[in-house]
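Batch job 17 of 40 flagged for manual review because the log was empty.
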Amino acid sequence: MSPDTQRQLLATLAETLALAPDIRFGQLIAHLGFLGEDHLERGLSDLEDDELLAVLYRHRAELLARQSGAPAASPPAPSAVVSISGSEISPTPAPGVSS
């Protein structure tokens, strides 16, 4: 736990909130938790400060890409399910259901 990393976290959090003024603070924190689980397979309370900062940087970059109109990633296949972070998830049929 580095004070410099914590200061950077707070500054980047403020920048990210400014990029999405319609998002409540709690929503952003919850979203970062989902992204941590998706990208690092650990919950928000289990992330180290530098890992949370990396998740926050990635989310901020996605918001900046949306604002500039640049695609953040290639569009998903029409049959694909997209996660909250925008990454493609292969659909898995329910047990006993054939595709």
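Reviewer: the log was empty due to a logging misconfiguration, but the result itself is present. The helical segments are 3-19, 25-40, 49-68. Unflagging and moving on to job 18.
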